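Project standup — Tuesday

K.O.: blocked on the structure for the chain from last sprint. Re-posting the sequence here as requested.
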Amino acid sequence: MAEETSYNPGSGPRDRRLRVGTAERDAVAGILRREHVAGRLDNTEFDERLERCLSAKTYRELDDLLVDLPIEKLNSRSARWSFRPSLLLLVLPLIGVAIVASHGRATWMLVPLLLWFCFGRFVWGGFGRRSWGYSTRRIYRT
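H.V.: unblocked you, prediction finished:
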């Protein structure tokens, strides 16, 4: 069974001057072949890029080969949203036990908890897509 390889310039080492391995070169070569078949690269440009890909030594050299190619949209929900368990999931059972133990008198604790859950991401996480787990990384699949 063929293993699906992918190359993501946003992941990997931050220092893009580090050396790449054969797996990264093969993944980028697969992307170039796919884009050639799709008609985005003509024969001469494909040959040039493939030669540069196979002789690339650093991540930066591989990134330069893919800069002007379109980004493939993956499964939009899984690529954009990621679930991170919050403190709410840890505190909620304790509050439930407190409400039951107090015979309903501790229900007032739900109000600040609900406000924290609804608005806390904006106040402490900042505004915009990053605070909601949106990934802006470029992902290439072969």
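K.O.: great, moving the ticket to review. The mean pLDDT is 76. Residues 22-37 form the longest helix (16 residues).
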